[in-house]
Write a structure and sequence with these properties.
Oligomer: single chain
Helix content: 25-40%
CATH architecture of the largest domain: 4-Layer Sandwich
Strand content: 15-25%
CATH superfamily of the largest domain: Ribonuclease Z/Hydroxyacylglutathione hydrolase-like
Distance between the termini: 51 Å
Number of helices: 12
Number of domains: 2
Largest sheet: 7 strands, mixed
Radius of gyration: 24 Å
Bound molecules: MU-OXO-diiron
Number of strands: 22
Structural class: alpha/beta
Length: 394
């Protein structure tokens, strides 16, 4: 086993990389792939922390044997039951019939429900520990980061945290595992996108988990996806802290739909007004072209948001409606917001978008700019005023 897969004396990486799945959860694009990270903690006893997607089970088993030879696994610790991490559990049980599975009460009912597993299972509670002889693991329940059963496992002597989905990123690993051994530039945006797509609804549980972890000395974070964090640990925790407080950077996302280009012209006008006022970061998304996944990433990343839509069947244009629904589902907070809409014979979009901002309790920059039929030069003044007000609140 290469040294690159050794996190420290006791902990080894045995995860896999998936570059063939196009959509994570059959929903979110994976242009750079994704890793399913699993780890072995090797003391006098051996514990496996989480597993991998079932189609990679044989690769996981091979990695385990390469790491510990013929020694049997004593424990399988299930930090998270989502099948990207749990669906090789039965393969592990078959290969290691004596393995004992550790999880909390919620994990245990999911083990039965997903895999019919009800024997050889040990329930752990908040703060319980497991001595491996040479290393002690302690368990912290972190519900809703990202499912109700999620927990984290802390290696006390090595000050290493197995964090589950928290601090994870999209993007397969390209050889190295530790952040200090790789070019991290592809992973930062993928971290924002992963958070916004997968964990974004659970800002408050993430904050609770961060509070709980703040008492621990942590030198290494081993998440279930993406690099293992050591060198950039503080930066990563800072990103998660900001994201879970819905605290965006200075910048504005303009997300719009447009059927024949008139609403798009309003979007362009808004972007030009913001730029002429000196705002450097304006991110435009034509919602018929951009992936919802990328739009959510940018909405979480930046504080300002402008949404525009034509009226369509007396409501919002469908791609705009999809964004609005995704933002509501994630209970996105703390936005400075403006909107615009258009119609041909009966306006609905501008009013609906304005009401949406109020419902979300966002800071509203002003009245929606509304366009009847074609874009006209008179709208330039209204866009300029809205952009000015938006920037003042940013
Ligand atoms: Fe990576 Fe919530 O599973």
């Amino acid at each position: 086993m290469s040294e690159k897969f050794k996190i420290n004396r006791f902990v080894h990486y045995v995860g896999v990389n998936d570059r063939k799945t196009h959509l994570f959860e059959n929903l979110w694009p994976l242009p750079l792939g994704v890793s399913y990270n699993a780890y072995l903690v090797v003391g006098e006893k051996i514990a496996l922390i989480d597993t991998v997607e079932s189609c990679y089970a044989s690769e996981l088993l091979e990695m385990i044997v390469r790491t510990v030879g013929n020694r049997p696994l004593d424990y399988l610790i299930v930090n998270h039951m989502e099948p990207d991490h749990s669906s090789s559990i039965n393969a592990i049980r078959q290969a290691y019939p004596g393995v004992q599975i550790l999880g909390n009460a919620k994990t245990i009912q999911m083990l039965e429900g997903y895999y019919g597993a009800h024997q050889g299972i040990i329930e752990v509670k908040e703060g319980d520990s497991l001595c491996l002889g040479g290393e002690t693991l302690r368990f912290y329940l972190t519900p809703m980061v990202h499912w109700p059963e999620t927990m984290m496992t802390y290696c006390e002597r090595e000050q290493l945290l197995f964090s589950g989905d928290a601090f994870g990123t999209f993007g397969a690993l390209n050889g190295a595992v530790l952040d200090q051994d790789m070019d991290l530039s592809p992973y930062w945006d993928e971290m924002y996108r992963y958070y916004a797509n997968i964990v974004g609804k659970y800002g408050s549980p993430v904050q609770k988990a961060l509070q709980k972890l703040s008492g621990l000395d942590i030198r290494v974070i081993c998440p279930t996806h993406g690099p293992v964090w050591k060198k950039e640990l503080n930066k990563v925790v800072g990103i998660y802290d900001k994201l879970s407080r819905y605290e965006g950077e200075k910048g504005v996302v303009i997300a719009y739909g447009s059927m024949y280009g008139n609403t798009a012209r309003t979007a362009m006008r808004m972007s030009k007004e913001l730029a002429s006022l000196g705002l450097e970061t304006v991110v435009m998304h034509n919602l018929s072209v951009s992936s919802l996944s990328d739009v959510l990433r940018d909405v979480f990343k930046y504080r300002g948001l402008v949404i525009g839509s034509p009226t369509y069947n007396a409501g919002l244009f469908p791609p705009v409606e999809a964004l609005v629904n995704a933002l509501a589902a994630r209970n996105v907070k703390n936005k400075v917001y403006a909107c615009f809409g258009s119609f041909t014979w009966a306006g609905a979009a501008a009013k609906k978008l304005q009401e949406f901002g109020v419902t979300m309790n966002w800071e509203i920059a002003g009245e929606a700019v509304e366009l009847k039929q074609g874009y006209s030069r008179e709208k330039t003044e209204a866009c300029a005023l809205l952009a000015k007000n938006l920037l003042a609140k940013l």
